[in-house]
Amino acid sequence: MATDASRDIDDLMAENRKFPPPKDFVKNTLVAGTFLYDEANEDYESFWARQAAELVSWDTPWDTICEWNLPFAKWFVGGKLNVSYNCLDRHVLAGNGDRKAILWEGEPGDTRVLTYAELLDEVCKFANALKSLGVERGDRVNIYLPMIPEAAVAMLACARIGAAHSVVFGGFSAQALADRINDASAKVLITADGGYRRGEVFPLKPQADEAVANTTSIEHVVVVKRGGNAVSMTPGRDHWYHDLMSGASNDCPAEPMDSEQLLFLLYTSGTTGKPKGIMHTTGGYLTHVTYTHKYVFDLHPEKDVYWCTADVGWVTGHSYIVYGPLANGATQVMYEGVPNFPANDRIWSIVEKYKVSIFYTAPTAIRTYMKWGIEEPAKHDLSSLRLLGSVGEPINPEAWIWYQENIGGGRCPIVDTWWQTETGGIMISPLPGATTTKPGSATFPIPGVHAEVVNDAGEPITHGGGYLTLTHPWPGMLRGIWGDPQRYKDTYWSTYEGKYFAGDGAKLDADGYLWLLGRVDDVMNVSGHRISTTEVESALVSHPSVAEAAVVGAKDDQTGQAIIAYVTLRGGATVDETDLRNHVAKEIGAIAKPKAVYFTPDLPKTRSGKIMRRLLRDVAEGRNLGDTTTLADQSVVAELQARAADHSED
Ligand code: 7RM
After folding, report:
1. Fewer CB within a 10 Å sphere, N or C end of the chain?
2. 192 lines ligand 1 (CB under 6 A)
3. 391 Cβ below 6 A of ligand 1
4. What tens digit of pLDDT does each residue of 340-365 get?
5. Distance of alpha carbon 65 from its chain centroid, rounded?
């Protein structure tokens, strides 16, 4: 445990369960043993170059693997390639045009199947349609769509002609969309009339209209018909997707792009301040996501059915729905709607129906399924599953075990994948046929990646709590923040000299396993002990009645900060506050015992499912709420404030 003076994060939790790769899984795995790690350790640049040469098709080979002018990197310099060619044409040319690329399921239950040949046809036509609207290499195009195949088509069509896309999640407001269009000076906006969510059509076009009214750069708006809701179309500016497509030629040769050509911008709001346009380029990014998608998910493209439940509006959708899986020629499920329409077993009914073999989702979703109870997955045959993945937040050991037993039937390895919008692709994760996992640990950097946990002074530590840094450039790394190189340096490269730091705490255990401890802004300070939210939340979730927990440090006269816990119970379960507080003390120590526990049916989350502890801190300290625009469900906090008021009156 840290001493009082230490600025490092305490290491409170010990989790010793170990899961070696299951024997049946290892029989057919792509990577068993340490050979990839050994090769990468020998010379990481050559290792990445081998991946780039093997997994990606180039029109012109590169001259230099990596040019590193800290903090600015270029990868595969001088190389030329086309991302859409890599995701489509080459599979068709190899004779796999009839392979299913996208098995799409709409929320109401309607379905569509697109083969690689069909997807290529669609992308070529839409690329020509974009050209007819004046889109050229180097332009920016905004995409504001529901989870429909046209989202992937639009992204790939941009890549085909060298326009950078900027996808804005369909749940974001008109103002958020306008800010992002303005920052990128986008020329064209691609949207839909509306999409399905919770059994109803949510309109997108009216929001798009409002956004465009507050921008000056948009020349044309393309509208996909999905919701069937009434929309107004501005003549000359607005075009129906199906009208453009019916007149478009499917002949659109993929043009070779420079390896460092901008592929996309993706805005991250962070906790506060103006959203940052994270820049990703072509050759390095494609290499990184193709390599990780293949080896982390042990992809056998001719057999597997892969499903990532993210939205294309997030980086997970970019890297592990669109670019990685398609570059690898995978067959994947894409689902439009929410997990509880028409009932709480929708996800498992889709797994059964399409015989999904690789399933990739977020801890927040897993904890929600825990809350709904094991009866839901038990209604379905999930025996097609052979590998499970997790991304987005630390996965608490108990949620990991629940996932392993109730979804994976005890036979599937779990890959807990740590990465960020900024890293482009997975950085820390098990390789499922090679790594012995521990529930809640993302284990080790993947071959080719170098991470260090450092103390407050930036010195590497070998065990205990500290800060996660990345010490070498990697192919998928962000190339900067659009229009703001200084902010790029300040945000990521100035905390620890020469190292990338993006704000996560982490610890190393005695076996060298990495455990992510959550955002450092959320670390609590109780009597001089720096306690991570993750460890206290995991201790709470290890109680059999608890599905989900969020803790925050609230000002306290005695201890500086006191731990306040917000807890959601599993379906049908009950427990009292004292029992839970004692449970935490028993699991990880008296110092981490929450001062108060509030029970709540829901926690405030961002639209991508991350818990918003900042808002809970405001509630706990009785402040007016700050910026709530990134909150997924506005009613949750109001409810919590009401409960806090009740509690203080008892
Ligand atoms: C992919 C994505 C990035 C932040 C990151 C972490 C947290 C993501 C994990 C995780 C623990 C994980 N991109 N995070 N994955 N924490 N274990 N496996 O989520 O840009 O939206 O968020 O998410 O805090 O810094 S993101």
Report:
1. C
2. no
3. yes
4. 999 999 999 999 999 999 999 999 99
5. 27
